[in-house]
Amino acid sequence: MSSSSIPNLLSLRGRDGGRGRSRSRGRGRGGHGLGPEAAASRGQAHDLTIQGTDTDAAVSRLSAVDMGYLSDPYARYFVTSLGGPPARRFPIINRGTYTRTTAIDSLVRSFLLGHEGQGESGGAAGVTTKQIVSLGAGTDTRPFRLFGQQGRPHLIYHEIDFSVTSARKLKTVEAAPPLASILTNRSTGEASDWSSQPWNGEYFCHGLDLRQLSPTTAQSLPGLRTDVPTLILSECCLCYLSQEESEGVLGYFSSRIPNVAVIIYEPVHLGDAFSDTMVSNLAARNIHMPSLERRRVDGEQAARLKIIGLETTRYLTIDRIWSKWVGAEEKERVDSLEGLDEVEEWQLLAGHYIVVWSFRGDGFEGWRAIA
């Protein structure tokens, strides 16, 4: 789903003309120290900037597919051809897209398959019901890839994003028969809040500002189950929130769901010259990422998740995932697609992005052996 480029790997170095932008659709705020009207205006502008990066994300995902890094038959439906053929990303961006996507796919697959066959409340006999909630989902294709496969456990899938993004996704689905045939029996409240009943589960698309969610909010999410193992997925989303807002979002789910897990993918600020340049270039694009100011080292992610009650946390930077999780034969295949001359630069760039997975309770047996 969340399958596009590692955010800004090259644009941070000023080498791709701003094409390799983040897929993230976080909910950052701006305007600290401004008057109420100016702060609101600046915050709205920042929201629009973040929403706009979804187009670049879709192009980056399609670039990786077209070059043979990934298999995703649904990627092209989210890229318009009105402006000519989609841009081909640099090899280092394509490799980042591949590594980040396959790593998260692997964690999601382990979550869905682990503990299968024991049965749970609401599932068919011998089938485990599990739930995924994707924050800032945008044009992510993961639900189509999951619901389009046979042999999956009964799956409940939620996507949350701004109303305009959710409404746009509905239009794309309705206009593309291969997408519409997967998310069948669609129903809508408003155009930005819709659902579907694919053959092997349930899908909900919520048009909602994440900042409305906290442990004390009365906000309800239609279709959200609290009695099944649930995975919260944040791919460069929570990093755009203030600390209080991001903890509130995670707390909304962890306070309601006993068996809960989180996957977070985002930049990590290691306090070196490159990360300082990262922050500066993001600011030049009117993008503020509070997480880069707060979490300067890897271990601070575990401390963050412990606050909301998650018991087991593991994490790897993207360069370590490439080294540890991608086998020799697959590395050879990926290397043969384009080649990568600047290995040291890859290690530097990929070392500033991290995948964190954390869980509490039952239903995550497939994760216990992953390191």
From TrEMBL:
Catalytic activity: [phosphatase 2A protein]-C-terminal L-leucine + S-adenosyl-L-methionine = [phosphatase 2A protein]-C-terminal L-leucine methyl ester + S-adenosyl-L-homocysteine
Listed GO MF terms: protein C-terminal leucine carboxyl O-methyltransferase activity
Region annotation (Disordered) ranges: 1-50
Binding site for S-adenosyl-L-methionine: R100, G136, D209, L210, E235
Enzyme class: transferase
Pfam families for the chain: LCM (PF04072)
Biological-process GO terms, alphabetical: methylation
Enzyme Commission number(s) of this protein: 2.1.1.233
S-adenosyl-L-methionine keyword on record: yes
Role played: Methylates the carboxyl group of the C-terminal leucine residue of protein phosphatase 2A catalytic subunits to form alpha-leucine ester residues.
Family indicated by similarity: Belongs to the methyltransferase superfamily. LCMT family.
Protein name: Leucine carboxyl methyltransferase 1
Organism: Trichoderma cornu-damae
Lineage, broadest ranks: Eukaryota, Fungi, Dikarya, Ascomycota, Pezizomycotina
